[in-house]
Amino acid sequence: MDKNSNHHLFKNNKRFFLIFIFTGVVVGWIGLIFYFSSQPPSASNRQSKGAVDVFYMLDDHLDFTDSVIYEKAVYFFKQVVLQGRYETSNALIRKSAHVGIYLVLGFMVCLLSYYYHKRYHLAFILGVSIPTLVAVMDEFRQSFIGRTSSLSDVVLDGFGATVGTIICLLMLMLIKLGMFVRATMLKNMLKKNNQIKGD
């Protein structure tokens, strides 16, 4: 087996290893989503209250709620994303968690899809559709365990997945652009060195 064949085999093994790891992370994250949504409403409320307490404790030390960026982000989330329907801190934390959890899932599914297919459009479609399907299944399942299923939560989950997918694709494109620029610079340097040697 020649050197090129060994290099190609190593790249394939590395790719399949990364796909295996990403798949495990995605499945584990979906498992966590189903686990937390299986908690009774009283436990879920306690978790939300605990998150609010931690948030305010951090704010006491870091004082980030007075910043302009925070105020604009909260205004956008409350008025544009939630359309002014939720005002209490507990409700905002719960809805923010929906967006954040599915943002991460969308990012991971998009990354997994890109590593598998190497196509941006498929990575976008799967990065949005698979988390949204998980959200629909999760909300449907909650209707059988004494919790309220909500279409608005599915919309929030889909929004989070879309944002996560876009972030992932932008990151991949920036990495690819950086690699292209680096390769071009190296090529130009080698070309210049060869010209100097030729002179």
What would a concise description of this structure say?
The chain has 199 residues and is mainly alpha-helical. Helix content is 86%, strand content 0%. The longest helix is centred in the C-terminal third of the chain and has 48 residues, at 151-198.
What is the β-strand count?
0
Q: What is the rounded distance between the termini? A: 39 Å
Radius of gyration computed on alpha carbons: 23 Å
User: Structural class of the secondary elements?
Assistant: mainly alpha
Pfam families: VanZ
InterPro entries: VanZ-like
Keywords: Membrane, Transmembrane, Transmembrane helix
Protein name: VanZ-like domain-containing protein
Q: How does this structure look, described?
A:
The protein is mostly helical and 199 residues long. It has one domain (3-198). Helices cover 86% and strands 0% of the residues. The protein contains six helices and no strands. It is globular, with a radius of gyration of 23 Å. The chain starts with a helix and ends with a helix. The model has no long low-confidence stretch (mean pLDDT 81).
SSE map:
Elements: H1 3-37, H2 41-62, H3 68-81, H4 89-117, H5 120-142, H6 151-198
Helix pairs in contact: 1-4, 2-4, 4-5, 4-6, 5-6
Can you tag this structure with a few keywords?
199 residues, mainly alpha
